C-alpha cells in the first residue's frame, strides 16, 4: 500500500507531462487542466491504497478514459449547440486559438545563449505541433512510451490493447514524426 506522501510525490511528478498529453489530445488548455485534475482525483480517491508501482499504468488509463469521456460529452454538447445556434443568428463565436502551443522550458536553458534558447523553443514548438497532428492512438502510445518512459507492457495495459499494437502505433508515430521533422528542416 502506498502512503499519502508517495501518492503526492507521484502526482507532483506526473502533472506537467499529463497536462501536455491532455493538451495534445484536446487542444484546449482549460479542458486539459480539468481532465488532468479529474484524473488525479480519481486516482487518489479510488486507487490511493494501491502499491506505488501501479500508479503509472493506473493513472495513464484513467487519463485516457477521461480524455475519451471529454470527447463524448463534447460531441453531444456540440450537437445541441449547433442545433440551437440556428435560432440565434447574431451569436459571435469566441473560441480559443487551437494553434496555440505551450512554451517548453528547461532548467538548462537558463545557461544557454539567447539565440540558442529561441532556437530550442522553436524546435520544441514544431515537435509539439507535429505530435498534435498524429492520430490519437499513435499519439497516446508515443507519449506513454517516450515521454512517460513506460515499458511496452505498461503502455499496453494503460491503452487496453496488445503489446504488438503498442509497437505498431509507436513505430508509425516515430516514422511519421521523423518524416515531418525532416520536411521542416529538422534532423531527428
Written overview of the protein:
Helices cover 71% and strands 0% of the residues. It has 188 residues and is an all-alpha fold. The protein is globular, with a radius of gyration of 19 Å. The N and C termini lie far apart (41 Å).
Shape: globular
- Strand/helix succession: HHHHHHH
CA radius of gyration is: 19 Å
Overall mean pLDDT stands at: 80
Q: Count all strands and give the number.
A: 0
Low-confidence stretches: 83-110
By secondary-structure content and strand pairing, the structural class works out as mainly alpha
Specify the number of helices: 7
Describe the main β-sheet briefly.
none
Helical content, roughly? over 70%
Q: Separation of termini? A: 41 Å
Determine the strand fraction and express it as a percent band.
under 5%
Keywords:
188 residues, mainly alpha, 7 helices
Concise synopsis of the structure shown:
With 188 residues, this protein is mainly α. The chain is built from seven helices and no strands.
